[in-house]
Amino acid sequence: MFRPRRKGAACFSLLRCHAGGANRGLRLTRYYLGVDGGGTNCRIRLADENLVTLADANGGRSNLQIDNGEPAFRSISEGTREVFHKAGIDFAETKNTYACFGMAGGRLLSARESFAARPWPFAGVKVYDDIDIARAGAHGGEDGAVIIVGTGSAAMAIVKGQRHQCGGWGFHIGDQMSGAILGRELVRRTVEATDGLLTGSPLIDAVLARFGGTVDAIMDWSFPRDDKPASAAAGAPNTLLGRAPAEFGALMPLFIEYFEKGDPVAKELMELEMSYIDNYVRWFKARGVEKLAAVGGFGTRLYPLMIERYGDFIVTPKHEPLHGAVILAKQNFAA
Fold first, then answer.
1. How confident is the model over 30-81, as pLDDT tens digits?
2. How far apart are the first and last CA of the chain?
3. 324 shares its domain with 251
4. Can you give 141-174 as a three-state secondary structure string?
5. Mean pLDDT over the full length of the chain
6. Please, is 290 exposed, middle or buried when counting C-beta atoms within 10 Å of its C-beta (0-12, 13-18, 19+)?
7. The CATH number of the domain where 132 resides is what?
8. pLDDT at residue 106 above 60?
9. Which residues make Cβ contacts (< 8 Å) with residue 39, sequence separation at least 6?
10. 28 half-sphere exposure, CB direction, 13 A CA radius
């Protein structure tokens, strides 16, 4: 439920008196602030003590691995001012606000601790990897597992207070369930089928046409060059830049379109995708997980197949990751 506060609400209105007289049980209202920090943008939510949303705001890129987290610090700082303004609450009330950030690039403990130690205005700050807030939101803060299946992929669970995490190591060495990896496999399959090594299909024809109709065009696309000369230490006269994961992941709508038409190559590749998810499901069950949710654009498209394959082990998320950050803020800093 979204309840914006009256603009200009004074600090004095935030004092609450409880039974026993006006001079006893007096306390300041607490607020909880959650951040879903992504590589291209972040979202900020301010909530009251009952986790009712007071206002949301947006900010810029917020990956902790970009420029030592400096853009993320600016984005969250600016977004915090905006969200308090939208809620009609004095910014000074940040001193009564407890914050939780779920951050892209937050896999490393050192990055999270360094970011939490910055000069925030809040009463308390806890920084998590972004998968933690996705899991907390999906299960309403209760036990359970989540897989993120989007451009990248990762997996995490809480079982009886114990945290379990795997994956999330990036496009080059991990992200097996991701749309980027499957997109790269689709491009590779297109090249091999065009060479006559494997059987083609309408999907293969569509991918080939998308890249200009020849394998030469695909190869040229796959190795863009940096126009700026590289230093001798770089090991090449010009830096060869591989395509970004998102550029491979952008093939997923086309892939889904042809899968739904029954394309044989799409069906084969979908079985490959599900085999990766099988590995994670086995991993979760070996650790006592009883329910699994999926988030991410590609993951939500896989729900019918996952339910068919894994039954009631699969559940739909209760809340979005942003609200998971608010949930974790209250769990970490309960009154």
1. 999 999 998 778 999 999 999 999 999 999 888 898 888 999 999 999 999 9
2. 22
3. no
4. CCCEEEEEECCCEEEEEEECCEEEEEECCCCCCC
5. 88
6. middle
7. 3.30.420.40
8. yes
9. 61, 62, 63, 66, 104, 105
10. 14
Structural domain for 302, as ranges: 179-203+244-313
What is the total count of domains within the chain? 2
Residue 167: what are its φ and ψ, rounded to 5°? 75, -170
Average pLDDT over residues 181-205: 97
pLDDT of residue 234: 47
In this structure, the answer to whether residues 53 and 90 fall within a common structural domain is yes
Nearest to 280 by CA among 132, 171, 167, 143: 167
- Virtual CA dihedral for 264, 270, 271, 272, nearest 10 degrees? 110
Identify the helix (H) or strand (E) that includes residue 268.
helix 264-285
Task: List pLDDT tens digits, range 293-307.
Answer: 999 889 999 999 999
Backbone angles phi, psi at 110, to 5 degrees: -60, -40
CA atoms of 164 and 149, how far apart (whole Å): 17
